[in-house]
Amino acid sequence: MRCVIARFPFELTKASVLDSMKGIKPEPGSGESVIIGRRHYPVKQVGQVITRQDRRDFSAAEVLRAMAQLGFTCRALPKAAPVRALSPLQHASAMLGTPVSV
After folding, report:
1. DSSP secondary-structure letter at 39?
2. Which pLDDT does position 87 carry in this prediction?
3. Burial of 37 (0-12, 13-18, 19+ CB in 10 A)
4. For residue 49, with 0-12 CB atoms within 10 Å meaning exposed, 13-18 middle and 19 or more buried, which class applies?
5. 82-91: string of b/e by CB count within 10 Å (b at 16+)?
6. Residue 94: its pLDDT value, please?
7. Distances (CA, A) of 29 to 7, 43, 48, 51
8. Per-domain residue ranges for the chain?
């Protein structure tokens, strides 16, 4: 499959990505990731290995798009839960340690 990452065209196949990532340990990270084999690799690490470019030259979205088109499972950042705002009375009550029902 032909894809463009950081303005450069690449001919990638699932087998070529598997071969490129063979023997490479995943870096610790909690951001976006790609599952290759049984391992979760950070997207920027995968992009650096398969393109041999600096991580600052491409975006994570470019690599995620290419990996998804090749059939790899991609995980995006988890969405944060919405924060419930407290009223001034609830905030003061919480600081004092006494629950207030509304």
Report:
1. E
2. 84
3. exposed
4. middle
5. eeeeeeeeee
6. 80
7. 26, 10, 15, 20
8. 2-75
The two three-digit tokens of residue 28, written as one number? 């610790």
pLDDT, residue 91, reads: 80
Report the SS3 class of residue 97.
coil
| pTM assigned to the model | 0.70
The residue whose two tokens read 């499959």 is 1
Q: Which of 64, 45, 68, 55 is nearest to 6 (CA)?
A: 55
Count the neighbouring beta carbons within 10 Å of the beta carbon of residue 34.
26
pLDDT digit string, tens, across residues 40-94: 999 999 999 999 999 999 999 999 999 999 999 998 776 666 677 778 888 888 8
In this structure, which amino acid lies at residue 55? Answer: R
Neighbour-count burial of 58, counting CB atoms closer than 10 A to its CB (0-12 exposed, 13-18 middle, 19+ buried): buried
Q: Are 63 and 44 in contact (CB under 8 A)?
A: yes
